[in-house]
């Protein structure tokens, strides 16, 4: 007989009412030697097990403690208490895994509050808490919805390399990959590291983006997307940065900038609506937590809307589309800028916008998600299409409340001569990217794409405030535990 999860039992309990069933799970609480709150991770909701302790050996009862794992056979009955529709009258209890006595008082699974930092240090246990159970079930739903959206829209899923010789961003903040004995690194006649003797015969790194390889696939398959791990060796210990994170990068042949913006908006709304439709219990829990967290903030820093309300508003509102030039005018003339309240003052056209500027536009000026487009060419990557004015590129960023930039993308420079000139101007090695230039030689077409950091989207959807709390095992400077 198929094992049933607690989620299945609670959602369709009428099928098993007054029947004996077998359930498995971990003890959340055990009250008065009578009531077990059992959870198996399938839902945030517990299944109440009623124990007549007189019918069980004292040794069994003594081992039923928080975090212990159990197999229980019993009858499903309508609950006499508040808070649950059904409960199980236990007939047989098997201890699958004890919570060892000496650890019981130390475990983070005891029903008391722990800091998120403490939970982060116990990543092997934090999945058992209500908070992180909810976060990671939502992360799963977001990931599933991403694949579903692209599949429904005839995109092909492409796996781009984790190990690469290309630096898509041109920032140089990449982790090197080598098979050298670090105590005996070969060098050439000039004293430089001789990568020709390394495993791949050249200098290689962990990828910061699958975009360049994705573009080559789009030139034959039309619509593709990548979804995989990316790495940045940026020494930033902030709530917004990870050294390892997951990126989604669609690339579409024959799309221009406007098509790209439409795709980004449709994509985000689809994914968020999927979570609203399929993660109600977890979102209700996260919404209450979000509200409690807001109460502890100074009034002027509190969010204007609850978590679920925020998500519903993003889905229902059309994203405001604003040129970079218009955005700079708004920021230059804002009270915050004139009164010196921005940490990074906006002084002129050409300023590279910071998170505080992006959030001002979204949260205070427009009060809706914003898409900024047509940025100065100097502050954007070499592969972005040069506009006719010669000053701007066909770039776009989607800005969300509480987050700032959540998507960055562009129409790509499809003209070989202009792309080569931009690479020269920005000191990008043509020889390293010969294969990328070749995509502009064999039937080049207008094409566009964008990148979305999965963790930033999960951060937004769950209402969490530290990006380390929405990835199972965060990798940050001086931290590679687990």
UniProtKB/TrEMBL annotation:
Signal peptide residues on this chain, from the entry's feature table: none
This enzyme's EC code(s): 6.1.1.22
UniProt GO molecular function: asparagine-tRNA ligase activity
Localization per record: Cytoplasm
Pfam entry (one): tRNA-synt_2
Keyword tags: Aminoacyl-tRNA synthetase, ATP-binding, Cytoplasm, Ligase, Nucleotide-binding, Protein biosynthesis
Substrates-to-products reaction catalysed: tRNA(Asn) + L-asparagine + ATP = L-asparaginyl-tRNA(Asn) + AMP + diphosphate + H(+)
UniProt record similarity statement: Belongs to the class-II aminoacyl-tRNA synthetase family.
Protein name per its UniProtKB record: Asparagine--tRNA ligase
Primary gene name: asnS
